[in-house]
Amino acid sequence: MALWFSASAVKPALQTAWNLSDTQASWLTISVQLGFVVGALASAVLNLSERIAPQQLMATCAFVGGLLNFLIPAVIDDEYARGGEGFYGALGLRFWTGVMLAGVYPTGMKLMATWFKERRGLAIGVLVGALTLGSASPHLLNALPLDAWSRLSLGGVAAWRVVMMAASASAMTAAVIASAFVRTGPHLPAAARFDWRYFARAFTEPALRRANFGYLGHMFELYAMWTWAPQLLLASYAAAHWSQTSARLAGFATVAVGAAGCVIAGLAADRAGRCWTTIASLVASGLCALVAGFLEGQPALLTAVCLVWGFAVVADSAQFSAAVSELCDPRFVGTALTIQTCAGFLLTTLTIRAVPAIRETAGWPLAFGLLAFGPLFGIYHMFRLRSMPAAEKLAGGRR
Q1: CB of 285 within 8 A of CB of 229?
Q2: Among 269, 284, 263, 306, which Cα is nearest to 378's?
Q3: What does pTM read for this prediction?
Q4: Straight-line distance from the first to the last Cα atom of the chain, in angstroms, rounded to the nearest whole number
Q5: How far is CA 163 from CA 233, 235, 331, in A?
Q6: E strand or H helix at 279
Q7: For 65-87, what is each residue's pLDDT tens digit?
Q8: For residues 309 and 290, what is the distance between their CA atoms, to the nearest angstrom?
Q9: Which domains, and CATH codes, for the chain?
């Protein structure tokens, strides 16, 4: 999952090297989101996870995704990128990287579920925690003294290229691990083909609609926060003349702390209830979205708020997927999860693009304040879901 934000983590360096605007830089992440949606839908329609052993599908997609991402720093030089064609080539490679990631994350969710019949909320929470740590890892790589190391060992290759190459290498290493060691568990569900007719039911069945709307509120905020909160930290630390290495470590911690949030939320959902857990996470993350933009001039306080935000913003992610799997017709679990995922990731493209546009005209407070509408929307629908009889299906009767 290091591939996902490997370009976002080095955004300032890329903007300088390729003469990119904030809008152009945002497309380096948006293209991955769009590729992921296309890949997830194509995988479901073609039933790839039934035709190919899940661990081999995961390994192949991780390796090819790593190779595609590696081509950006290895092949596209700065002058070619500044000319325009190189930048669009990079967007194409990022799009296809996203397509490949659709064979990694959803497939990993399915594999995890085959090993757990009980406490599945915790199990999926651990997996989403791994996604979170992987997504954060390029920020950690970017905090290392790569310029000095590159001058000594690589002939002065730009640090941003080293970060993207290292992220690609980690994906290829993961492919080897998946192929050699990952196996399907004893609870493999019966094959279920994708059914286009279930699209409408995902948003017309009352309980399922509430769960999906809660997820959309969550996704409205999540990837925009992951993309832009580290950039706000960089700006805040620079204005205070604090170390940029510290800023990059703070950006890493802001995303990575969500791994702990996923695990704790998984435990809470299996014990206290799925609706309450998602509501608590949405309340905390929404409040942080309202506050963070006002703290650019106070880097220490901003860091503290971002850590709370990072913990809460992804903590509920796995619980929305678990809720949909519990509420939908068991024959169409795969279809229901595909619809949920595709709708959510399409929505992220709007907010990833909106944040820099609003920041340029109105500043960080309004740009991040916009994201709070997502949690507010999600809270309303999860409260409504909790009051419905169908909520008895959630987490063994724990609403």
Answers
A1: no
A2: 284
A3: 0.89
A4: 31
A5: 19, 20, 43
A6: helix 274-292
A7: 999 999 999 999 998 888 878 89
A8: 11
A9: 1-181 (1.20.1250.20), 195-399 (1.20.1250.20)
